[in-house]
């Protein structure tokens, strides 16, 4: 029994050391043969950093609590992104996994190991950043915290089940089942944005801004499952570098472009943001909605 207990740490250490190390994955990405893949990470680090600086500069004069809350949510989107893309760049959140039998990429090799490169760190980005996107959109629309937190819960479920789809190696059917679950959670979020929050934005007077933001967000977010299905995680029509750039471009649109459009609107603190009778109103005598 003692020998079994003593060997347990060694077994665990061996399990953690299987596959390429962080250094080997870093060398694989930045060693010269995968420039396109490397740039898809580095460009987002630069854009996230510039966005953080832009938010700090443009938001320095905000005084209204609701405006500050929106700006803070927008800031945290890029804070999460720069951290997550740094993890991808360092190789920390990259892995090589073998696809199940029947997958188009089954039997492939990457960095001298059997399997394909999986950028699971992207799912960390989406899990922690998309709730802040939804918080900002919900506040702009004038929604209440019940709906905002509900969409946040569904987006976390969407990202976690998407991660499960990417990492499942036991069965091709189960990979696609996780994908279906993730897509179902996604459609709930789309419904809230397109139906509930659109109506609320009409009432609060932010419909012009919200119409632009919802189109960029919803259309962009539909691109993620499409890329997953076409990329190496799905039917492998697109290679890893092209898939990564697709994700990166969608991140640029749904995060940084959306951030600057929203911030440029709230920085002057229009009455539609600082006043009204719906949730988030902060003018004296206004009523907070508890729908």
TrEMBL record:
Signal peptide: none annotated. Keywords: Chromophore, Membrane, Photoreceptor protein, Receptor, Retinal protein, Sensory transduction, Transmembrane, Transmembrane helix. It is a multi-pass membrane protein. InterPro entries: Arc/bac/fun_rhodopsins. The chain crosses the membrane at residues 39-58, 70-88, 123-141, 148-170, 176-194, 215-238. GO terms for cellular component: membrane. GO terms for biological process: phototransduction. It is found in: Membrane. GO terms for molecular function: photoreceptor activity. It holds the Pfam family Bac_rhodopsin. The keyword Transmembrane helix applies. This is Halorhodopsin. It comes from Natrinema limicola JCM 13563.
